[in-house]
Amino acid sequence: PIWTPYLGFLAGLFGGLHVCRVLHPWMGVAFAAASVLMFVQWISQMKLTPADRRFITPKGMLEYFQYRNEDADVGKYNGGQKMLFWAAALGTLALLLSGIVMWLPQPIFGQRLREASYILHDAAFSLFFAMIIGHIYLGTAAEPGTFRSMILGTVTKSWARLHHPRWYREVMNQHPKTGS
Description:
Elements: H1 9-12, H2 17-42, H3 50-55, H4 58-65, H5 79-103, H6 106-109, H7 111-138, H8 146-152, H9 157-163, H10 165-174
């Protein structure tokens, strides 16, 4: 359990602490492998543009959360989504590397590196978890219309036009209007 025995009950959900100690490294490897697949799939779409750089400034984020100044140059992913992608990639790397150091026998890396890895692993997990909570909030309650995209994988034309106008224009140019 991370930092406190109060979270020890979570181990019971997975068969106890011993089972967790055995499963955790292997689940970490599976998580890292899945993350690599997602990274490869999305990296071409996650390059930061000048519009994205404006988005991630304090002023740009304030405008986003106040629903002001929708940028006409936002593509399929906005600056915040791209930053989440890069933060998740770095977080996964930190979890993987620190996990490997903790998993392998002590003589390979030395005691100090192992101790630092425990701190890094816990810190990376805590930040990653906070990021995921924020992502879930922004993808459901904070932005009307986004929950549908999480469940169905689609958004309405009006939502796309409002929140991701460049992407909307690109998609509509690829699929010209039919009689409907």
